[in-house]
## 1
Amino acid sequence: MNSNSLEILPQLETERLIIRQLNGSDLEFIHAHYQRPEISHFTLLHFNNIKETKEYFDISCLPPFSREFKMGIVLRDTSELIGTVSFLSWNHKHRNGELGYDLAPEYWGKDLMFEALLEFLTYLFDNLEIHRIEATTNENNLLSKKLLERLGFMLEGTMREKYKIDGYFQNELLFSLIKSEYN
Ligand SMILES: CC(C)(COP(=O)(O)OP(=O)(O)OC[C@H]1O[C@@H](n2cnc3c(N)ncnc32)[C@H](O)[C@@H]1OP(=O)(O)O)[C@@H](O)C(=O)NCCC(=O)NCCS
């Protein structure tokens, strides 16, 4: 382990949610979550079998974390795991990286991801001293676009025909948020 690597992630708390480090017992949730078309369609994460999920899980969800990490979003009332937030492509020298997020569809439209990301972004900016956070989203992912705009992300441009989805090449929007803009 070196200074650019984390062994333990904190537990973040909001009014309705706990955002916590994942552990081995969450593997099945992660597998089932990314099998759902509503999740995999835009996250582009999909695993063909539990072995493939485990390979991903070991790198993204279990320590040590140096280039990326994924945390679980848990409902405070029931302890149910309902989604994830991620920090990806972490560049320590330039103090930047990319945001990822997904919520089980039955919990959409309740402001839960907005609530989770407010706390997660605060952690990234204040505790990990990240300077710039990028987020990309398919131009047809209206809920995700709306969420990023509400959080103060600025649209930087369109990555034209970046991903082939449903048989045709689709545009991906690039957003960013700078620490000084976030409060
Ligand atoms: C992107 C995603 C997280 C957005 O979920 P979401 O629930 O729309 O996001 P929010 O937490 O910001 O909730 C906002 C909604 O809650 C509503 N809301 C706000 N306050 C509320 C309250 N107190 N009670 C109930 N609803 C409320 C808002 O009006 C908004 O709904 P609307 O869009 O119908 O107006 C979700 O669609 C998802 O997981 N998609 C699949 C994965 C994905 O695309 N990830 C991003 C890849 S780039």
## 2
Amino acid sequence: MNITSAEFVKGIIGTDPILKEKYPQIAFVGRSNVGKSSVINSLVMRKDLVKSSSMPGKTREINFFIINKKYYFVDLPGYGFARMGAKGAEKIRKLILWYLGSGEARVNMVVLIVDSVVKPMAYDKEMADILRAENIPFVVVANKIDRLNQTERSHNMKAIESSLGALVLPYSARTHSGRDELLETISKLIK
Ligand SMILES: Nc1nc2c(ncn2[C@@H]2O[C@H](COP(=O)(O)OP(=O)(O)OP(=O)(O)O)[C@@H](O)[C@H]2O)c(=O)[nH]1
Ligand SMILES: [Mg+2]
């Protein structure tokens, strides 16, 4: 897959006609602050298509971006962000589960992003289980590998693979390392 165009379309917080459009949806899911928005910017080679921030909880809506006038990249809010408070976190959790599980959206595949620097957390495992239960094809992206040396990298990749039981691609949104492999995997999985 070669990305030639990318544009923001809209952000939603509930049912919307965009969910039913013919374009396949590739959703980016993961804990708060793992770099979902940054990975999308890295894939489209833009610094600021998607707003990213060092303050966790930046993305609050389900944001749709049209790619090559053919697919939607869908940026979701992060799950498991404690500082949002129990109420806010529950709202976001419901929003994500509704998007993935209600059948309203045409979710073609998911890119499940985890932080390669820390061990996979209960939330990551729960998300992998939900995707399996919903029969949604997914790939795990271990982001921020620029922060690890070779030894840590291979150690952490193995730990993530065995904990989530899925294909894991090392990635850095900062250096774009792993970009070609991820684009290749996305085009295979949406077929
Ligand atoms: N070193 C490093 N930092 C990264 C990488 N990707 C993202 N970051 C940083 O991590 C922070 C969070 O990035 P975001 O893209 O906003 O994360 P997010 O998952 O969209 O966060 P929420 O929208 O709050 O759920 C920012 O400070 C980014 O600069 C990476 O590959 N390497
Ligand atoms: Mg975000």
## 3
Amino acid sequence: MTGPILALRNLTKSFPQGGAFDRLLGRGSRFVALDDVSLDIQRGDVVGIVGESGSGKSTLASLAVGLAKPTSGEVLLDGEPLSRLMRNHAGPWRRRIQMVFQDSSSALNPRKTIGRCLTETLALRGVERGAREAEAIALLELVGLGPEMAPRLPHELSGGQRQRVGLARALAMKPDILIADEPVSSLDVSLQAQVINLLSRLTRELGLTLLFISHDLALVRTLCTRIIVMRKGQIVEQGPCLDVLEHPSHPYTRLLISAVPKGIAGRRTPASPDMPAREPARSANAG
Ligand SMILES: Nc1ncnc2c1ncn2[C@@H]1O[C@H](COP(=O)(O)OP(=O)(O)O)[C@@H](O)[C@H]1O
Ligand SMILES: [Mg+2]
């Protein structure tokens, strides 16, 4: 199919603010978390979404997967409005777009073993009972975990292992689009590297379309082909990842880059030990 796999059209999300009393009197104002954002994601794109805390990244993600409804505007999945697709709760659209959260511990049922969590997800996808166990093991393997994980409960795993389980569960649905919201922020640096390498491999091997939300520009540079810079609910700059990071045109992007201690290019992330060191970023636009 041609055309964007995911499109956001003039997407706006606002929240009531002020106390309940103000709202009761109709005096409450609204806080605009996402402000008229339009965006096309092409099949196979690996898109980094960056911006300071509160810039609307998670709001964008939750609207894109249908966890929240926009105040106005539309999300299109292969050209079809998500609002229309959502009328069919069990529709295939639900399988096609999956999300991984920052802290998968809270997203995993503490009383269910890892194996059961995965086989139940496979059942949702319609995998036959007899095939579920083998596929669950294969999923664990895909994310670099052994079959010995299957009988364990979430609390018996390390944070990095749980994050992989979260990823395996999302992949169990065979999604076309994966949205990962700060998926490695709760992990220490070496585990971050492992999960980033895994995501990188999965996008290549499975042809996944990935939206990778992060405030870590170095990780985005390692993983992503495109970058979107958000500020106060708006997209201030976007383009090919290296172009934008090496020749930022918006002052806010420059500010974000200058806030990285050793510079994005200078910091060799452990996620890319086999990547050639790049030239330091030139300040293209003097001024
Ligand atoms: N449910 C909500 N109610 C009120 N305000 C919200 C809600 N969700 C998010 N916000 C506000 O919207 C802004 C954007 O939040 P968010 O999308 O989580 O930003 P980010 O993920 O970039 O840190 C923040 O100022 C946040 O406080
Ligand atoms: Mg967030």
